[in-house]
Amino acid sequence: MFSVKKYFDKLISGSFKKQAVILFGLILATLGVLFYMARLISMFYPKLGWFTENGVEYRDLCWWVFLHFSYPGHLILDSEPDYLKRIVGIIITIIGIFLLEGVLISVIVHGLITKVNNKKRGISRYKFSNHNVIIGWDTFTISLLQNIFKENVDIKSKPEILILSSKNTEELQNKIKSNLTSDQLKHVYVYYGELKKEEFEKLFLDQAKEIYILGDGNCNGINNKNIENVFIISKLLTKRPNNNINCYINLPDFGSLNLLSNFPFPDSLTDKLNIKLFNLHKGWARMLWESIDLNINLIKNGNDIDRVKIFHYPFPQLVNALDANSFLHLVIIGFNDMGSALLEQTLHIAHFNTNKPTLISIIDKNFNGKDSIFKAGFPFYTNIEDCRVSFIEKDIYSVEFRDQLVDWNKDKDCRLVISVCETNPDISFTIAGLLPQEIFDNKVPVLVYQIEGEGYSLLVENLDYTGQNRWINLKFYGWVDEHSDLITTRERLAEGIHKEYLKLAQKDGYYDKTKPNFYPWERLPDVYKWSNRYQADSFIIKLSRIGKKIVQSNLPNDLVKLEKQEIELLARMEHDRWSAERIMNGWQFGSIRNNDKKIHQDLVPFDELKEETKNYDYNAIAKIPYLLREYSKLDITPI
User: Fold this and answer.
1) How open is the CA angle 226-232-236, to the nearest 5 degrees?
2) 387: which residues sit within 8 A by CB, 6+ positions away?
């Protein structure tokens, strides 16, 4: 049913542009009515002087009406004594004041207020080019913003960052303001909108520098939705030049992440997007096996903060302390996504070429099938010769388990490290604090998973350690707002490993551009990218094994060369790591290689390899100093 009030309210509540058009039309209509009124009056009252002998002088009449309508001061200029003419002038002036000085100013002010509110609410839209696009909002978005600015610190013009999210825009903007500098804030724009095609079309994606698909929170099926958005985005890149856009996809569900890491993405995606899958837990698992020297300084509230106590995790030091008869024993308490990610990374990295295998014990009161999921995802992990995994279903507070921990610690050849992976930060800290006193007396490193909040870590950081040996070896990790899987230093290193592999293949004559493993990095299937990433991740551990560490490069120092015996040891470690990586991906030994069935003839001990295969490992190790400096500006120095 038509309603004048409803129609009028809808008419005047539109955009500033719509209101301005309506006001302009109203002013013209009012001027027309006033002119017609003045003309009628002059026709019936000729003494006003608006007539000439030859008829009505319309031009003078229009001008008189307009002057009184637009400027009240013209009332003073009416020196003629005719009162009717003055009354008409006053009426016209009052109407002009109402429309021009009242309604017009109101419309302008309303337009400005609306513009400000639209900016705050994320409704305003702008044109961008060479910008970073973040689709969705997650708890680590602040860390992501800081890393983007940190990566572009040497660029004169800071990158513009556009965020699209269906969450409350003002709340997101307040979080950003409390964590970025005022200068950085000028380059961040937050859009409100659903994560769908209609909104993506307004992001100028074909002119973007990088795209991050985070999704809006940990809702059911977020991995599925984020992958769907990749396909939508690829179809919008119609005007994109031939070079690919870096596209980072957040996959919070660890199980489907592992499946997709081995999934061949179609050419319709890889021809336009350089896809990288990432996950919070996988990122932290990689970080735990690394050293502080590789990581970007974190920034909070615009200030650099020292995280050495927290980020300097114990694995490199423990590996450096290994001898031929010692071994590492990792105890994971709580088998959730974090525990699963740490187990997987350890199986990829913990290969030390000692006489005893690495032990990994996973403790949980009730696995609820999580151990079965891991075993189904990596069915041949038990074939990794130098790693032994045990799933132990026990109460972590039980006397039996506590006695078991003490017994493990008594082994003089054991280098014990404990990671408490409970999701609840309070429970995780409690478990760590209530471990047997013998664990703390022997300075066993204890890693404590803290998905949010820094209270416990701040307490331990600022503790006077005199007589407080229970807390001195606690190391905290896992904060969702300090995401670590997008550190570009190691990504550049992984890409450099692949580039050198292509150079070697071309030199030795086995390069075949039609095979996926020889594709350039931008189009390389994710399974091969991860192969290079795991190799890059292992550099710190390998070098720790021979008493060396990685530091920032101090050019033009001479490039470090590894000794022959060092290359021999690390080549054996590299072969064991490569074998574990293949086994984790479902490969098995067979005398004749078959890629379709994942059969490989080189899944044997190092001593049983052909000399040409050994030489490949020797060359890969000898190139580590060059790779570090060339692709990551890093060098090697004694510990």
Assistant:
1) 135
2) 346, 347, 350, 351, 357, 358, 359, 360, 381, 580
Predicted local distance difference test score (pLDDT) of residue 523:
83
* b (16+ CB within 10 A) / e for 36-65: eebeeebeeeeebebeeeeeeeeeebbebb
Q: How far apart are CA 74 and CA 52, in angstroms?
A: 23
What does the chain come to in residues?
Answer: 639
DSSP-based three-state secondary structure for 572: helix
pLDDT of residue 254: 83
Count other C-beta atoms under 10 Å from residue 606's C-beta.
Answer: 18
Structure confidence at residue 309 (pLDDT): 36
- 302 bridge partner residues: none
Exposure of 390 in the CB half-sphere (CA atoms within 13 A): 12
144: which 2 tokens?
A: 């992501």
Strand partners, 246: 210, 274
If you ran DSSP here, which 8-state letter would residue 103 be given? I
Chain position carrying tokens 């990790």: 477
Whether the CB-CB separation of 265 and 292 falls below 8 Å is answered with no
- Residues sharing a CB contact under 8 Å with residue 558, sequence separation 6 or more, in sequence order: none
CB-CB contact of 447 with 418 (8 Å): yes
Question: Over the chain (639 residues), what is each successive 10-residue block's mean pLDDT?
Answer: 47 58 68 68 59 50 70 61 69 73 66 66 82 91 85 70 92 89 89 92 91 84 91 85 81 85 82 86 88 38 38 76 91 94 96 95 92 92 96 94 94 94 93 93 91 81 67 85 65 93 91 90 87 93 91 77 95 97 94 92 95 93 94 87
Residue 412 contacts residue 383 (beta carbons within 8 Å)? no
Closest CA to 540 of 227, 247, 276, 318: 318
Distance CA(92)–CA(61), nearest Å, equals 13
CA distance 41 to 119: 50
Kindly list the distances between the CA atom of residue 530 and the CA atoms of 23, 50, 544, in Å, as whole numbers in the listed order. 62, 89, 22
481-497 burial code (b ≥16 CB/10 A, e <16): bbbbbbbebbbbbbbbb
- Alpha-carbon distance of 253 to 279, in angstroms, equals 8
DSSP 299: E
For residue 566, what are its two tokens? 């060092």
**AA letter at 502:** L
Cβ-based neighbours of 606, under 8 Å, separated by 6 or more: 571, 572, 575, 576, 614, 617
Confidence (pLDDT) at 232: 93
Grouping H, G, I as helix, E, B as strand and the rest as coil, residue 164 is: strand
Residue 612 has a CB neighbour count (10 Å cut-off) of 8
Helix/strand/coil for 506:
helix
Name the token pair of 418. Answer: 């404990």
What are the beta bridge partners of residue 213?
Answer: 135, 249
**Per-residue model confidence (pLDDT) at position 607:** 95
| Whole-Å CA distances, 443 to 144, 183, 360, 437, 447 | 34, 44, 19, 10, 12
Q: Rounded to whole angstroms, how far apart are CA atoms 312 and 534?
A: 20
Q: From residue 90, how far is each of 238, 330, 334, 342, 547 by CA, in Å?
A: 62, 92, 85, 84, 96
